[in-house]
């Protein structure tokens, strides 16, 4: 990122925001979801004001191949009551794209609408974004997510590795809240890679019974972990040094 990008945004109009790669995970002041990829940060560090790139650049209306509805941007969901994102299942607490259906409108976080249709790992493993699962998610062993939302999923080309976006996001957020963030909302700066690693299922991974040799099992687990890391980086931003380090530790054994 050689070029410095500086913008003003209506949600924090008193200062300029700079496009930066943050040193630590942040909570986006637009959508209230955690991120750690490049983001717009207030030039005054004391403000601790962050916006996802997708939130800063939200347009008044948009569309997505998975939704027939046209979607309008709102800085707060206009409909009252609990709202969840139809892509990731997390609560909608701020910036949202919502369709104009009066009853049960569709809601999407701005960053979720920008999820890449295909993710490719360095070993050639490919994951494809799907609106629905045709087989169970390997994390929750269900086709629906835990809160009943038919959220989006990533599925490998071979079909063997399938994870709800909601499941991966939920795991990472819960672990980060536990380990990375202290109770009072202050950041614990020492334990972030630990939190990230503990968000990766290892023992809990469901192993297909036909994979009997220990070598086949190891390969399977390694690929499943890789699939999850790919989804994590798609969800929360480009892999930072932090992630790469955790990644290497995970894959070395
Ligand atoms: Zn955001
Ligand atoms: Zn500021
Ligand atoms: Zn979402
Ligand atoms: Zn709709
Ligand atoms: Zn799941």
TrEMBL record:
Annotated ranges, domain DC1: 11-56
Coiled coil, from the record: none
Transmembrane segments: 227-247
Keyword Membrane: yes
Keywords from the UniProt entry: Membrane, Repeat, Transmembrane, Transmembrane helix
The protein's name: DC1 domain-containing protein
Organism: Populus alba
């Amino acid at each position: 990122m050689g070029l410095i990008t500086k913008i003003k945004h209506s949600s924090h109009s008193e200062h300029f925001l700079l496009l930066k790669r943050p040193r630590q995970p942040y909570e986006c002041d637009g959508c209230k979801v955690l991120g750690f990829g490049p983001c717009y940060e207030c030039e005054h560090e004391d403000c601790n004001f962050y916006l996802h790139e997708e939130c800063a650049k939200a347009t008044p209306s948009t569309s997505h191949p998975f939704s027939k509805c046209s979607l309008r941007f709102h800085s707060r969901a206009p409909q009252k009551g609990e709202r969840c994102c139809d892509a990731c299942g997390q609560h909608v607490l701020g910036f949202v794209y919502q369709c104009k259906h009066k009853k049960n409108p569709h809601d999407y976080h701005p960053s979720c609408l920008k999820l890449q249709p295909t993710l490719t790992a360095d070993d050639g493993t490919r994951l494809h974004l799907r609106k629905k699962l045709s087989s169970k998610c390997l994390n929750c062993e269900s086709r629906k997510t835990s809160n009943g939302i038919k959220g989006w999923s990533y599925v490998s080309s071979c079909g063997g590795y399938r994870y709800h976006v909601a499941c991966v996001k939920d795991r990472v957020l819960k672990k980060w809240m536990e380990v990375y963030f202290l109770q009072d909302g202050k950041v614990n700066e020492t334990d972030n890679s630990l939190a990230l690693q503990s968000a990766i299922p290892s023992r809990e991974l469901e192993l297909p019974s036909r994979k009997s040799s220990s070598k086949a099992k190891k390969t399977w687990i390694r690929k499943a972990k890789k699939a999850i890391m790919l989804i994590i980086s798609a969800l929360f931003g480009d892999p930072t040094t932090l992630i790469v380090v955790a990644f290497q530790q995970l894959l070395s054994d």
